[in-house]
Amino acid sequence: MTTREEAGALVLRMQECFNTRQFDQAADLFTPDFLNHPLGATGFEAGREAWAQLVARFPAMRVVTDDILIDGDKVAIRSSVEGMAAPGSDVRPVLIEIFRIGNGRLAETWGVTEGPDPRH
Fold first, then answer.
1. C-alpha–C-alpha distance, residues 111 and 100, integer Å
2. How far apart are the C-alpha atoms of 65 and 46, rounded to whole Å?
3. Are 94 and 67 in contact (CB under 8 A)?
4. Residue 11: closest CA among 70, 58, 80
5. Are the C-beta atoms of 92 and 82 separated by less than 8 Å?
6. Residues forming a β-bridge with 105
7. Could you give the strand order of the β-sheet that contains 94-102, starting from the edge strand earlier in sequence?
8. How are the residues of the chain apportioned to helix, strand and coil, as percentages rounded to the nearest 5?
9. Please, what is the average pLDDT of the chain?
10. What pLDDT, in 10s, does the model give residues 65-92?
11. DSSP 33-69
């Protein structure tokens, strides 16, 4: 069983891999059958491709952890998103994600983004 500290560290490590663009190093953090509900996809590769597309469009994008809540095998994280504010605005989007941990790895995720959409 994964401890609370290990579960929190796992999610923070995933964010660190995103922020440092070390996407390949994140692969070992996910189970082979990782289920990404927002993308409607299974496996790490779909998420890796989504990360690559995001940073291609928003090269300065990074996520900054604001809150982490852990309950059993679930980790909820609220993060501010830097580097993708709408033109003329300093209001940053907020990313809310819930991860299920399985066998010490990220097994499943749900997520939603709140705030201004920089595409408009």
1. 12
2. 23
3. no
4. 70
5. yes
6. 102
7. 41-42, 30-36, 105-114, 94-102, 74-82, 62-71
8. 30, 40, 30
9. 90
10. 999 999 999 999 999 999 886 667 777 8
11. EEEETTTTEESHHHHHHHHHHHHHH-TT-EEEEEEEE
Q: How far apart are CA 99 and CA 108, in angstroms?
A: 6
The backbone torsions φ and ψ at residue 24, rounded to the nearest 5 degrees and listed phi first, read -65, -30
Whole-number Å distance between alpha carbons of 33 and 102: 10
Kind plus residue range of the DSSP H or E element containing 14 = helix 4-19
Residue 38, both tokens: 């927002």
pLDDT in tens, 2-59: 789 999 999 999 999 999 999 999 999 999 999 999 999 999 999 999 999 989 988 9
d(CA 116, CA 94): 9
* DSSP tag of 28: G
In this structure, what are the phi and psi dihedrals at residue 92, rounded to the nearest 5 degrees?
Answer: -95, 145
Q: Which amino acid is at 2?
A: T
